[in-house]
Amino acid sequence: xxxxxxxxxxxxxxxxxxxxxxxxxxxxxxxxxxxxxxxxxxxxxxxxxxxxxxxxxxxxxxxxxxxxxxxxxxxxxxxxxxxxxxxxxxxxxxxxxxxxxxxxxxxxxxxxxxxxxxxxxxxxxxxxxxxxxxxxxxxxxxxxxxxxxxxxxxxxxxxxxxxxxxxxxxxxxxxxxxxxxxxxxxxxxxxxxxxxxxxxxxxxxxxxxxxxxxxxxxxxxxxxxxxxxxxxxxxxxxxxxxxxxxxxxxxxxxxxxxxxxxxxxxxxxxxxxxxxxxxxxxxxxxxxxxxxxxxxxxxxxxxxxxxxxxxxxxxxxxxxxxxxxxxxxxxxxxxxxxxxxxxxxxxxxxxxxxxxxxxxxxxxxxxxxxxxxxxxxxxxxxxxxxxxxxxxxxxxxxxxxxxxxxxxxxxxxxxxxxxxxxxxxxxx
Amino acid sequence: xxxxxxxxxxxxxxxxxxxxxxxxxxxxxxxxxxxxxxxxxxxxxxxxxxxxxxxxxxxxxxxxxxxxxxxxxxxxxxxxxxxxxxxxxxxxxxxxxxxxxxxxxxxxxxxxxxxxxxxxxxxxxxxxxxxxxxxxxxxxxxxxxxxxxxxxxxxxxxxxxxxxxxxxxxxxxxxxxxxxxxxxxxxxxxxxxxxxxxxxxxxxxxxxxxxxxxxxxxxxxxxxxxxxxxxxxxxxxxxxxxxxxxxxxxxxxxxxxxxxxxxxxxxxxxxxxxxxx
Lengths: 428, 277
Ligand SMILES: Nc1ncnc2c1ncn2[C@@H]1O[C@H](COP(=O)(O)OP(=O)(O)O)[C@@H](O)[C@H]1O
Ligand SMILES: [Mg+2]
What we know:
A: 428 residues, two-stranded antiparallel sheet, 18 helices, B: 277 residues, six-stranded mixed beta sheet, globular, binds magnesium ion
């Protein structure tokens, strides 16, 4: 009972408070007509909205549970129910969150900087989600994840320069390149014990970086590649001087040109990508494939005895994870318009790994929260430039000591409850 | 008329034992863990394999389930009237192709997965086929939803049989020792095996749990049309439920027969009690 009470409090007060704290630096200060305006009340609005939303969602869940027969999974009635039905409250809460995120750039007082920062956070969320499949679900330690990020970025940049490949075709192209690379690296290694992968991936990432630096004629060497095509929206360009055959967004809409338009567009694209990937992974995790990955992580020997092809399963996890990094790389290249090997160092692999570990090895919500923390924290600590890394490190250590399972420990899904649409019912 | 069509040959294959082990030898460097061992096990029966520690019982299981490649010898499993050469299969094919499932002397569950999920992993093959790798599952096609619901039903029934349904949502690592042993059996049965290999399933159980296990195992072969190969040190359990007992010592078969006959066998008594008798 005490446990239930605690989780209830966490849900209604804890999470809203944490999110508000994270968001408050952007809400407190607003660019007014005559300089910065300090708005002490702005975070309170957000807090009130979040608490209200949680209460509503809980109320709806209770109602749903009360209405559904809770004792019917015996016998054939199970067959008629969707095995993966979701609770109403959850669905509504999810929708509200999506709307809020979509509306974020249009909220009053949200300027260029927060949107840009949110875009950076979302790139790391995408990378974190990809790596969480490999490390958190399949239990393979990948120390060179950044290699696939780099391959995706350079893959799109080069294909764009050579063949004029557009951003939207670049996404699947980069995913494919990264997946093929993962296949070539993983095939010989994953036959062996999983532990070897850590070393090989480390070497592979370094190899990719060195090739990028030294293959001047193709990759531009340390100077990198520039002039990469930005995303367009069905032929509508977000630049001041669009290419032939393209319409400029500000002319099309009849407004003044502003780079803010492109920044918002980029934010919406990565939000869409992350949203789709997040939803797909939620589904995937409960499918036989997701379950098999976790089984292999838990006990390889037992998994084999049940007929699981461990090598193939690991390879699949490695490739899916890599292809998500490829997509993130493609977006990164299109957002910056310029890429160089500097963006793909070992530090980047470590940062993404920190996102995954801090998030609780396999928890998707944890990845989102950890990415927010790890990207925002250094930004917030900018004033303390000299002590930044120290504080950053201390914060990570503190979290790992206080919550060794990561920020969010994902509970096992109660499949039987899910089969009856009882998802989200509090354990009591 | 080919040889296979000949009625006499068919009659022989129909009566062929479920499992045939022929001249199996397993060496680890200089150590011979199993030495020129031949035995057979029948469908619908419990065949116990007993012997002192280090006799090579677990090694025999590891050869039968693909974890070790035998140094010499042949292993045949009769399935759908066809003998399948186990010694030529790949590790992960033993469960699907031959229908062999096993439990482990040192329990090997998927600790962080829920009890129900552990059993669902045993149903991996049919569920994976229904989800077409992933496509049908990601799209939640009706065919997959139905197959998944069927899978859940099967898992629920298996858990009910071993009295673990109430714990379905708990992580497997939280279960008591006896419950973990039962879950391992349910998970193995989820693969719908023809031959079930149990490595010391009663080890660590209290007497009442042992009794419940005995009656459960006794009914299993006829109910599920499978053969059981049982390694066990609890002689009460072995003698109570086995149809056939095979005694190993130093990797060799020293006796074989009904429980009563084996208990009288002087070679067995000597192996268990030493030279003194
Ligand atoms: N992988 C292995 N490597 C080396 N020796 C092994 C291995 N597996 C088993 N053995 C040896 O084979 C012999 C038989 O072991 P085992 O089959 O586990 O006996 P039992 O299960 O009958 O107690 C033991 O001497 C053991 O040390
Ligand atoms: Mg043993």
